[in-house]
Prior knowledge:
The protein is an alpha+beta fold. The chain folds into 4 domains: 20-136, Sandwich (Immunoglobulin-like); 145-468, Alpha/Beta hydrolase fold, catalytic domain (Rossmann fold); 487-578, Immunoglobulin-like; 586-668, Immunoglobulin-like. The chain is built from 9 helices and 38 strands. The protein has a 10-stranded mixed sheet with strand order 11-12-13-15-14-18-19-20-21-23. Strand 8 and strand 9 (118-120) form a beta hairpin. Helix 6 packs parallel to helix 7. It is globular, with a radius of gyration of 29 Å.
Amino acid sequence: MRVMCAAIVTLLCFTNSFSTPSDLKAEFRKGKTFITFTEDSGAQSYNIYRSENEIAHVHGLAPLANIPKGSSYDSRYGFYHVVEDLGQPLSANTGLFVYTPKQDNSAYYAITSVTNGSEDTNIISGTNSLVSPEDEEYWQWPCGVLRSKYNSNTYYFYYYWMDYFDWPHAYEYYGDHFVVGEAVILRGKQDVPLELYLHGAGSTLYDTSNPGLKNDRLTMRLQNHCNLPYHLCQSWWYGVSNHYSEHELQHGDTIVGYDEMRIVYYTQSLKNDPRFSIDTNRIYLSGGSMGGFGTYHTSFHNPDIWAAIRPNIAARGFHSWYHSVWYDFYGPESLNLTARNGVNIYNWMDETWIAEQNIGRDFPPIVNSHGSTDGISNMRMHRCLYRKFAGTRHGIWGKWFNLSHDNSILSDTVLSGGYMRFRKNELYPVFSNASQDDDYGQFDPDTSDLVFTGTPALQCDSAGLMNGYIDWTSSLHDMGLSNDDLIDCADSISITMRSSRPNTVVDVTPRRVQDFIIRGGDAYNWRNIDVVSGNNLASGIAIADENGLITVDSLMVSETGNRLIITCNGGCSAVVAGRQSKDMDDALSVSPNPFNPVVKITLSNNKLTVNNGALAVYSVDGKIVHRQIANNEQFLTGIFWNAAGFPSGIYMVCLKIGNKNYNTTVMLLK
């Protein structure tokens, strides 16, 4: 009898050594599902399960994730998480998992405890398993949680969880904070600009990053940090290998822009935040040193977000600068590791390479500053930038100082009106090969762009300007000259300019053209009008190049002002033809774009009739990844492509009707 009692006691003790987590809840809000539960005292971690059916047992089910005990606490910042806007922090014995739905669906959740490697698979409906499903939605840009407001309600403290399954957990926790500053004078205003600043290398700064207040814009400042040795503690605002911490970098690894994703997702979430009315054509990005480099690559990887960028003392050119530093992140160039889009990572991190591959595409204009004696952000880097962009006719303005690595020069506007004079939806003139540029090294017989420790210094002016002395009137910056409005309409372009330096001659290329239609190979008339006298100083014909760009070479710009007028040649037939061509180019509509994993493709041009249209989707290397035949009704209501099995990147959607093709592009962003 004693032996039997002892066995029963032992069995009871063993059974009671497991306890069941309780109070399981799943609540979908603004693109995320917040799963909370009461932890039990003995467990070390928890398995999360998800299913389209109610979970009565977990046999045959694979855990969605295993999360540690104490998951409601962020030890970096010393606080418990908040999962509702301005809500109360979770308690110490509450567990938390944040799930990002990939599609609209209803899901059940369950949770079990794990102790010393053993899982208690006991399921109690309504305790650690949901009795009703949670309705979830796919949001392209989920929102963050507003944790608090402070400083007289001028600072908004957000916490944002990235997709748990697309994050390197050994690198950093998948959630982090950002703070938005809103000056009192901006409250209730519509179409307010947003300026985002990226911090430079240094302290990991696990604290509240106050962005400062400006009376004319919302502000946001971000930190790039992780718990690693100094030279690896920041990713230069891009990311790390998809096999981070699993093994040394090796052939086949992919370098993923995890930190760049933070920048993009935070920004996009604010665009949809009802607390603010953000002018989406006036979102600006800036940063110093490492933050300046992040400004370069983030804007060129995501050019449709930013109106303009303001890098300062920014290093660039990973191909040639301090190879050993970049090897830790991206491996030796001989490994040929790539970004998710399949592009060599060293090319993908070089904005000049991107510009040269995409001459016809508009990128945010760059307003750049640096020091001529800077040993980190070497003059060769910037000479390369200025020369390459002169060749691709992309917009850049530069100013350098007789200083070393000094972030204080960020306050200099570089050009009249500063970089916030640009709008994403407004034409601006690109200046290249200007005759009055100061010497940034363009005349040095040493033409190498390679930058190593000990590379000879360029022969250049110790301080100077590149393009920054040429001004023009735009909607946000009026020079006050007579009849100087910026015009971009169906039949003409008019840009009024002046130079603060005499005898300026410069090539002028209109970029971000909105209404004037330009077709490669067509001829366009141009005239240079003296603003004071109204006289025609020069005229000619410019042929649009194969990239759809018109450049007027060697245009004289005086100190009193000149007006460049461009019209189509031969009665604007190019405009008519261009309009028709544009109508056809707009034949297809895709939504959402970017997408993940399903995109809807719709025929948006009612002038077209599709009997049996052949739709094909091509990858960036020209391979067909999807093919479908559909009729007119199907195209009008929309057909769907599920790209769950394909990598992130740009894809070309092509509809063939008869012998004509109508194309558009989509971005898969996982």
